[in-house]
Amino acid sequence: MSNTALVNRTKTLLYGAGLGEKPTIIRGAADAAETITGSVVVFSLFAGEGAKVAAGDTLSRIDATTEALAAHLYVLSVSVDAVTALNSYMGSTATAVNALDAAFFELNALRPEFFLWNQIETIVSGLLWPEVWAYNTYNITPDLSDYQVSLNANVEDIERAVQVIGGTTYNVAFQLYKNMDPDIFSTGVMAELFAFDASTVYVTVRERVTAATTNESYIQCIATGAAALAAGSTLGGAALESSKKDSQERARMTPRQAMWQDFLMLRQQIANDLAAEVDWFQAVR
Question: Do 94 and 42 form a contact (C-beta atoms < 8 A)?
């Protein structure tokens, strides 16, 4: 799933399928003709859209492909369809020339997209590992001179490494090193694979989950947690207790508490599934 789709999944959880709290959508001009002076940006909306906007409104770009493009602008004045706005409002990344061409904006969004990107990053970077991770595999041609190889920066552990020689699979001894000097290993992660020969080493690793992870259970877990944070939950939200599943107890929860509980339960379910896979890996070593 793309990061944009993950943001939209989070919005769906916050707003629901109906109109709900969804803000009005404003259409930008095909050529926004941006001019930027310090912290002020002047740009054009689609013909007639300026009448829907007034000083004091906010315009938040939607469906941006990166957080840096999710501009959040405070409107200072409007002249026909030309908007003068404060750039980089509320800590969002400042927009650039040509970045707003053919853009769409939410008018006065309660939770602008740059803010949702931040909540998703909080979940991904701080609230999944070590309970939840993603398996990945690498096919590596070993360097028999020093047995060293650079791995992805998200790699946290090596589960197993094997070579197939003459039709027989052999376990390869390994050692993982984190926080290496990037001048030596650009990713900061280095493995020593003590291969038997120059044939391919098949390596299975545990990696931190990213927003681009496509497993549906991870996507729903991340979006639910981000929605809960965006709705006002704190990182020390409701404890995961079996009694919380009781319908009467849940009925007394606020929506944000219920979403936080759902996130914790989804995370626990994934962790349980991963624990079963770890047991299998240990059994076949």
Answer: no
3-state DSSP assignment of residue 69 = helix
Residue 239: per-residue pLDDT: 45
Given a cut of 60, whether residue 246 has pLDDT beyond it is no
pLDDT > 70? residue 280: no
Average confidence (pLDDT) over 212-229:
90
> CA 229 → CA 133, 199, 217, 226, 245, distances in Å?
21, 48, 19, 5, 20
What domain range is 149 assigned to? 134-207
Q: Are residues 146 and 178 in the same domain?
A: yes
**Which residue's entry shows tokens 């300026």?**
50
Q: How many helices (H) and strands (E) does the chain have?
A: 5, 14
Helices 3-15 & 113-126, crossing angle to 10 degrees? 100
Which position has the higher pLDDT, 28 or 16?
A: 28
Nearest CA among 244, 159, 249, 167 for reference residue 203: 159
Residues whose CB falls within 8 Å of the CB of residue 273, separated by 6 or more in sequence, listed in order = 217
Asked whether the predicted pLDDT for residue 98 surpasses 90, the reply is yes
- The CATH number of residue 40's host domain is 2.40.30
